[in-house]
Amino acid sequence: MFSGTMFKYKGDRKMYGKRKLTMVKKVVALALAVFACMIAMPFDMAVQASEPKVMVVDYKIVQKEIIAGQTFDLEITIKNTGSRYVDNLKISVASDTGDIVPAEGAGNGFMDELPNGQENTFTFKLKAADGLEEKSYKLTVTNEYDDIWGNPHSATDVIYLPVKLAQRASITDLYVEDDAVLGDSVEVIGSINNMGAGILYNVRARIESKNLGENDTFIGNIEAGKSGSIDILTNAVSTTGSSGEISTVVVTYEDKEGNETELTGKFSIVVESPVYDNVEKIKDNTKDSNSKAVYGICAAAVVLALIVISVVRRRKRKKAILDEF
Question: Could you tell me which of 147, 143, 148, 173 has the C-alpha nearest to residue 158?
Answer without folding.
Answer: 143
